[in-house]
Write a structure and sequence with these properties.
The protein is mainly beta. It is built from 2 helices and 14 strands. Strands 3, 11, 12, 13 and 14 form a 5-stranded mixed beta sheet that branches. It has a 4-stranded mixed beta sheet with strand order 4-5-6-7, with no helix packed on it.
Length: about 180
């Protein structure tokens, strides 16, 4: 009976294209109208998928962000602009040890979670579909407060005078600010 109720509840949420807030009970969908996916503040980040074979940027969805671990000793966080892979790290990292804990086989090539729509042509594990809403990254005050950052971690630093995006390639943090 619990499984049926849970399935009905999840199905209703998916049909309503509900907003997803992970780890944060502040605010509601009616207040946060521009948010599709939000993560809580704290000393944790979003971990990007690791790839051992970097696909052609022209064969994947523009805007894809990943950790390029195709050469484990020179890993870098990258995103696709639809034509090229753009390096967000600016420096190499050795993720050989981290890769030892990652799966090597593909268990399901067509599985994906879609937030914001019933279907999507985009190819990804997590696909956010919206023309009016965004994803809010996990927010931290300082990356030094993250006890054990993982390769491919991405956060937003909300620190007076130092607000910026940060990505961790497995060795070093790289930063961008507006």
């Amino acid at each position: 009976m619990k499984k049926i109720i849970t399935a009905l509840l999840l199905g209703g949420i998916l049909l309503a294209n509900a907003q997803v807030i992970i780890g944060n009970n502040t605010g509601t969908a009616s207040v946060k109208t521009s948010v599709l996916l939000e993560f809580a503040t704290g000393n944790k980040g979003l971990i990007l998928p690791y790839v051992r074979i970097l696909p052609s940027p022209t064969t994947i969805t523009e805007g894809t962000i990943l950790l390029d671990a195709s050469t484990s000793t020179t890993a870098r966080v990258k995103y696709s602009n639809g034509t090229n892979w753009i390096d967000l790290s600016g420096q190499n990292a050795d993720v050989t040890a981290a890769l030892a804990n990652q799966p090597t086989g593909i268990s399901e090539t067509t599985s994906k979670a879609i937030v914001g729509a019933d279907t999507s042509t985009a190819d990804g594990v997590l696909v956010l579909e919206s023309t009016t809403k965004t994803m809010v990254l996990p927010t931290v005050s300082d990356v030094q407060n993250i006890p054990s950052p993982s390769p491919g971690m991405m956060v937003y630093i909300n620190k007076a005078g130092a607000k910026r995006l940060a990505v961790y390639n497995g060795s070093k943090w790289s930063f961008w600010k507006p």
